[in-house]
Hints:
Blueprint: H1 9-21, H2 31-38, H3 44-56, H4 58-61, H5 69-72, H6 75-87, H7 96-103, H8 107-120, E1 123-126, E2 129-132, E3 149-152, E4 157-159, H9 163-170, H10 172-181, H11 194-203, E5 217-223, E6 230-236, E7 239-244
Antiparallel strand pairs: 1-2, 3-4, 3-5, 5-6, 6-7
Helix pairs in contact: 1-2, 6-7, 6-8, 7-8, 9-10
Amino acid sequence: MGMEHQLNADERRVLEILLEDWKDVLRCTNVEQAMARVGLPFSDATRRRLAGHLLHDPAVQAAVRWAPHTYILTNDERLIARAALRQGRDGRPVDASGLAPATGLPADAVADGLEALAWLGITVGDRRAYRLAPGHESFLEGLGFNFHEVVLDSGERFNVNCFFDFVLLVNPQFRDRRAREGRRRSSRTPGMTARMLEALEAVGAAGLVRHACDDRRVVLRDACAHCADPITIVVNCGRLADVEPEGAMYLRGGG
């Protein structure tokens, strides 16, 4: 028997949205994004109940292609995790006040994020002081703490696996070229998981995009893989409309 009986109606709807989104090989929508689509304010308690399905429900586990933290953490929490990795090198303590300037987030939000990281086993300690947990490097496999959030003109938000998946969504020329070339990812590709590779093989190059976004305004919210500074790209009807900062030439992260 599944675990759906532990969720209320709104939470079951969140789970349904996640499972439907994950049928799209380009999408790795997280819990917070699905909650927003239902109209639920973000709640850590709700997130933890839904995370229980990701961690323990075989039916949900069968649908995911990346490590559970890819779907459980919010994008802000991933920024916090990246800052914690930098601050916590060589066993140094990690604290919210020190991470707030690096992430651009309020100290209270950073403290909540560090608590979420501790819950998942990325850090250890309490609100007075955290340190990186033994074995935290394992969380860097796959997508690690990178994210690439697509925002449609309807307000719908979801993450994609990498920057080039965003280009596939918004640029028909790039999409057609990929379909003609039929290139396949190798199991030796850095960050690639067996489940992601299986999903790509199943759909083939021509079937990568289920819902193209050529005829609408689409925004990519990202962060530099090196300094974590925000990057925003706006594409309108297949044409690049804006890039902030202007010097952002290439985005890297993910499989």
